[in-house]
Amino acid sequence: MDVDTSHIFAIDGPETFETCCLAVFNYQYQQNPVYHTYCKLLKKHPDNITTSAGIPYLPIEFFKSKSVVTAKLKAKDPIIFTSSGTTGSTISRHIVADITIYERSYLKAFEHFYGPIAQYCVLALLPSYLDRQGSSLIYMANDFIHRSHHKESGFYLNNIEALKQQLVRLDNEGTKILLLGVSFALLDFAETYGLSLKNTIVMETGGMKGRRKEMIRSALHQRLCEGFGVEHIHSEYGMTELLSQAYSKGNGIFKCPPWMQVSTRDTEDPLTPQAVGKTGGLNIIDLANVHSCAFIATQDLGKTYADGSFEVLGRFDHSDVRGCNLMVI
């Protein structure tokens, strides 16, 4: 069986989400050898899974040791996204059989929360990501830049003074700006230049990447607000193993696009759900991962709330320090 991906991006409520979840689960149980084996070990299969609440979440570590992809697409020529990791660590590999699904996901997700990307001048301050190959964040940012209707959109690596001049000029002209940056680079910039921006969304993608001491998100955001002269710092939550992103418009509270959902699990018993409002491991349903695994147990700690939003509080002990979304507790 196949899954019609147009149905995934047409989800408009709990009923259509539930229907798509079960369809994707059945498809991945049949077509993804790694996920199939994991489900069999838990004695879970389509005959005894009748709601999305019973679907098993694959531990994210499998993306380091296995090819997590549907069998019939494995032989094609996929794009492979890789995690940054740290020196000597094992990186994750996400085999993306159909890159157009990723493109559709990040474009629709951004538009869902902020409107069409074409409206924005996109200034990307992502030095650590530009230094390596295989970054899904760079792929997304590059496409944002190309789809922007502003010739000034682009990446900034070491030309920080040029970025400052562009940012101030465009903001003063009333241009809608998306300043997308890794945390340490935004902090360096904010501490060098004291700005007062009126038309700019400052969005951090998380992580100090070993360049600076890790900070709790609230402290980071306070310093960034002061340095850029803005009321709120926006955040993007994504990772190599996901083809969708959640966004926060302030205070570190993230919301998901309609085809993505976050829940929590007990920190001591990974198969037991955690209550809303209590700290647990984050489990993510990302239906854009239709050809890899849409049901992932991450190594992130956080809380979920009754309206479907969530916050990220840190990492499990001994899990990898990852650059794409986190600060420590």
Automatic annotation (TrEMBL):
GO molecular function, a single term: long-chain fatty acid--protein ligase activity
SUPFAM superfamilies: Acetyl-CoA synthetase-like
A Pfam family it matches: LuxE
One record GO biological process: bioluminescence
Domain Acyl-protein synthetase LuxE: 17-327
Name of the protein in its database record: Putative acyl protein synthase/acyl-CoA reductase-like protein
Gene3D superfamilies xref list: N-terminal domain of ligase-like (3.40.50.12780)
InterPro entries assigned to the protein according to its UniProt record, in alphabetical order: ANL_N_sf (IPR042099), LuxE (IPR007534)
